[in-house]
Design a protein that fits this description.
The chain contains 3 helices and 2 strands; from the N terminus they run αααββ. Strand 1 and strand 2 form a beta hairpin. The chain is elongated, with a radius of gyration of 21 Å. The longest helix has 25 residues. The termini are far apart. The protein is mainly alpha-helical. Strands 1-2 form a two-stranded antiparallel sheet. Helix 2 packs across helix 3.
Length: 103
């Protein structure tokens, strides 16, 4: 049984690797037989699980904040990538101008 087929066995290991190699985000399955699966050592798998759990918490926190009344698109906050913050802003008034920095 190859690595990709083993992801359907319902084990916790399979669940972990499914979370890491999401088909819509990862193209590793296209490598076919050339793909080298991750190391199966217990310590490594525990570390991977901790990282996946942390990523889930961050995604949940982002989702909650994004859908809250406190979310402001111009100031997304530290939960979101810095690329979400505008790099410039436009101020319309007499003699309109564009200011760099988004502030």
């Amino acid at each position: 049984k190859d690595f990709w087929e083993s992801l359907d066995d319902g084990s916790s290991r399979a669940s972990l690797f499914k979370a890491i190699f999401k088909s819509r985000l990862a193209d590793r399955q296209q490598e076919g037989a050339l793909f080298v699966p991750p190391v199966g050592k217990e310590a490594y798998l525990k570390k991977l699980q901790m990282l996946v759990d942390e990523e889930r918490r961050v995604q949940d926190d982002r989702r909650k904040h994004f859908f809250s009344k406190d979310f402001v698109t111009s100031v997304p906050g530290p939960l979101f990538p810095s690329s979400w913050k505008p790099t410039f802003s436009m101020h319309f008034a007499r003699g309109s101008s564009v200011a760099a920095g988004g502030d």
